[in-house]
Amino acid sequence: MAGPIVLLTDYGLQDTYVGVLKGVIARIAPGVPVIDLLHAVRPQHVRQGAYALWVAEPYFPDGAIFVAIVDPGVGTERRAVAVELNRKYFLAPDNGLLSFLLERYEVARAVVLENPAYRLEPVSSTFHGRDIFAPAAAYLAQGVRLEQLGMPLEPSRLVRLPPPRREFHDGVWIGEILHIDRFGNLITSLAAAELHIGQTPQERFRWRIAVREHTMVGIYSTLPKLPKASSLPTSAAMGCWRSAVATAALRCGSRRTWERLCARGGSEARRSHRASSLASLEEPHQCRTGQQHFWRQ
What we know:
Layout (H helix, E strand, L loop, with lengths): L4 E5 L7 H12 L5 E5 L7 H11 L8 E5 L10 E6 L2 E6 L5 H6 L2 E6 L15 H14 L24 E4 L2 E9 L4 E4 L3 H4 L5 H4 L2 E5 L2 E4 L32 E2 L10 E4 L25 E5 L2
Parallel strand pairs: 1-2, 1-3, 3-5, 13-14
Antiparallel strand pairs: 4-5, 4-6, 7-8, 8-9, 8-14, 9-12, 10-11, 10-13
């Protein structure tokens, strides 16, 4: 028996949707452990779901079956797929939800979930989690082979979102904020190692970070090291989406306030025209994350 089955959705917990998924799984595969990874992905926010999968996946055992449902295209012609990556299985709409994992690993196998024997019929036009993804995951946990769930899919045909921005040119690092957690931590696409952030005062204070009309001076490795009077703390552990390091990058006080940031090294902090507009980087269902610039003299 494979498993556990790991659930990630944008369903929330106010309705019966998550419970129904678990009921379907229990009816088909009683005794298989089910883990709630996250049900608070912002509604239809595919990129946030992709980030959450990317962060969590390494901590689950081989054979884990992820059911990932953030599905603004439910009921349309978008495919429902099952993909084997890194000795784990991912069942999801083919809308970019697996993008970051597809950058991390090679696809071992992929199929389209279309075999009616492993669905609940009739299939709803709005609740594929119940009728397609949960049953397929449960049957997979019971020993059904991936190939039995549907026809093979060429991995190159899987939908991929644009990768997080992460560029260096003319002495400037340009990245983006991937996620803002409930503590106010901003997770960035840049790695501390690439910025050469050290622990000496000279290295820490080389950086100035501007967020809208606010400026922060210095980057610290942990919150206890911040000056007690500081209202705009920072941390040196820059989360890099291509790296195994995916930790808090910058900690600020308000989720709504700290969506756009630029940062530079040197004695002056000046606003950059490149940080003034992010409309071109945002997708229809994407959280308003920010672009950030790191300058160094």
